[in-house]
Structures are given as C-alpha cells and as structure tokens.
C-alpha cells in the first residue's frame, strides 16, 4: 500500500506495523535481514564525485544482526551496472545469504539512464531483468524511484526532469507485482518544504545539486527506511527507530 506524505506518517507507521500478519513478524524475528543496495551515485558511499542515501540507511537505520551492503556505483546506468559486473556481484550475495536471511535488493537508477537517447525501453527491460534475477534467487527486489535533484524554480518548487523515469520504475513494479517505494515523490515534497537554503546543507559540496554529504545521507537514508517499513511491514522489525528525525522529515522540517 502506498502511503501519502500528506498523512500523519508516524501514526500510519504504528498502524501498519501493528496490522502486520504474525507470521511475517515471526519470520523477521527468527532470521536477520540483509539489504543489498544497487544503484547509481545517489545511492553510493560519499566520495569526491558522488554520494547518496545508501550509507545513511546502512549505518544508522538497522538493528544488528541485520545489515546492508552498498553497491551504489558512481555514473552507473542500468546497462553499465549489469555489463560491468556489479549486478553479478549483487546476485552472488543474494545466493550466499538467501538460505539464512531475508534478502532485500533495492534497485534505484535513472539519473544517468535519462541522459541516454531513446533509452526508455532499455531502462524498463533492464529493470524487469533485475527484478526477475532477484526473485529467481529467492530474494525480494524493491524498486526505488530516483532521489530528487535539488534544483529550485523561482517559486520554490523543484525543477526536476526525473519524474518520467520515476514513472517507468513504478510501471515495471506494478507490471511485475514487485514492491516499490517512491523516493522521488517524497524527496521532492521534503525539499520543497525545507526550501533551497536548508537543502544546501545536505549537499556534497557548495555547487552540487545531486549528491549528498553525510547529513544528507542520514536524512534520506531515514526516509528510505521509513518508506520501506511502510511498504513491507516485516522490515519494521529490523529497523532502529529515530522518531525525532522521522517526524522532522515527514513534517517538512529541516534537521541540519
């Protein structure tokens, strides 16, 4: 079930977790969850030329023994992630962990795919393949729409061309009956609420409107964590809550 950012999201969180089937909760308690994060630089670890939400999610939102591995690759498209060997590495980890853990693979691309000419169908085909590959190995794929860029119009709205690519990811998710979270829509909403001056405090550097510094990774890693537990209630059993940060995010209040 998709949850609107306009709802009182902390209240929704408690309601959804409480309503989760007992068998799902017991499964989450009986074995750890492993999160494999596949994506471009807006998922990747902070570096000179990239950095996304992945490490904020990995380092601040999970209860041991559950853990995440960040495979975000700067400059990656769906095609290069597959052809360059990153995807084979991810699938190898799915196979390695699926016997003893619940394995979730988040798949977030679009920032670089959108730069290629006549690439829409290739993008969707690659996402379908990724989803099928994970399911065949007893993993749980989760399609993630792209993190918004932080370019603002004069009226304070986000000027972002990623909307169609978010739509393509959702289209594939619905077609393949795969879980998804709409990070693009929710990050746009949050950025419009906090405004451009506050958004600069989340940037990798003063001129970067795409990548995140460590505080930015913490904020959007928490957003991803919240969205995941609302989409898949069993995940709520393996995440560490930060009620203060979550309330600030979903109320549109700048944290840093």
TrEMBL record:
It comes from Morchella conica CCBAS932. Keywords: Hydrolase, Signal. Residues 1-19 form the signal peptide. The keyword Nucleotidyltransferase does not apply. One of its GO terms (molecular function) is hydrolase activity. Residues 38-216 form the SGNH hydrolase-type esterase domain. It holds the Pfam family Lipase_GDSL_2. CDD domains: Rhamnogalacturan_acetylesterase_like. This is SGNH hydrolase.
